[in-house]
Amino acid sequence: MEIASEVIESMLVKFKSEQKWTLQAIAQLSEEDINWSPNLESNSIANLVAHIRGCVHSRIETIFFDIPDTRDRDKEFERGLTMSIEEAYNKTKEAFDIIIQYLEHLGSNPELLLSQPFINRPPLTYSQVNNETTALNLMIAMVREIHYHTGQIIYAAKIRKGQLVWQYD
Length: 169
Description:
This protein is mainly α. It is built from six helices and no strands.
């Protein structure tokens, strides 16, 4: 299980880093910035945060905490969706905290990396993964999905603010 542990640890490092940079970007924005969209066809940071939180709910939270999937994906992309800075920050932090908690659980149980956590659940909707997906494939999909959208958040933040201030600790 050495390879499994290395994969899990690598993902943990990446998600913790992504959480840090995304939260720092959001903290520098105004409520207007959070809810701004470059055009009618583009997502605001509020939409992206809602989508990240929805993905984490339906793909991880439902299996890790054994709760029903209550996600409304269409609502995540509604034009005019608004959030306060605090709400955007907290939803982003919460999403990353759940991912990190799940990865830490896998780190303590690396044999679960090849398990199929959705196999006995209702069919998945709005997902790149299916019911036969392994925990490894789920987390690979999450790396791609989350990093794609956090990149969009940071890019939009830079468009709105220009130079962002980063805290390197």
